[in-house]
């Protein structure tokens, strides 16, 4: 799948970093191999050497430039014909507030250790982000820069 240039954020010889095309969450990034390989063990040493620093640079930019409270990095896809890729998901305070306002997740609050504490469950929060910001026809309103503005900010930060 060809990623339209307006979504490109950064690239190396082995990887492309782009904003997830179908995500309304500013800063939701994808890091995709330039090789049609779907297994880390089959990547070149050069591509493997670029991956760690690239993930770290993206995480740092999301935290410092956009104020992400947390950044989740994971590999989920395994569909044939697609290169190995990683999801980089920023978790902002306002996203976590939306999560806790959702009735489906209120039960998790009962497991908090003390007053005002909430045991954020990464898997549930990731699912919430996918459902609300990637799958919904009308996602919740965002706070802060738009997706297009975010892409520009991240391009500068990740040069």
In short, what is this structure?
The protein is α+β, with helices and mostly antiparallel strands and 159 residues long.
Question: What do these coordinates show?
Answer:
This protein has a five-stranded antiparallel β-sheet. The two termini are 24 Å apart. The chain has a single domain, classed as HIT-like (HIT family, subunit A). Strand 1 and strand 2 form a beta hairpin. It is of the alpha+beta class. It has four helices and five strands.
Structural key phrases:
single chain; 159 residues; alpha+beta; five-stranded antiparallel beta sheet
List the helices and strands and how they pair.
Layout: E1 8-11, E2 15-19, E3 29-33, H1 45-64, E4 70-74, E5 85-91, H2 93-101, H3 122-135, H4 147-157
Q: Under the CATH scheme, which architecture would be assigned?
A: 2-Layer Sandwich
Strand content: 15-25%
What are the segments in which pLDDT stays under 50 over at least 5 consecutive residues? none
The total of helices stands at 4
SSE class = alpha+beta
Mean pLDDT across residues: 90
CATH class descriptor: Alpha Beta
Number of strands: 5
Question: What is the radius of gyration?
Answer: 16 Å
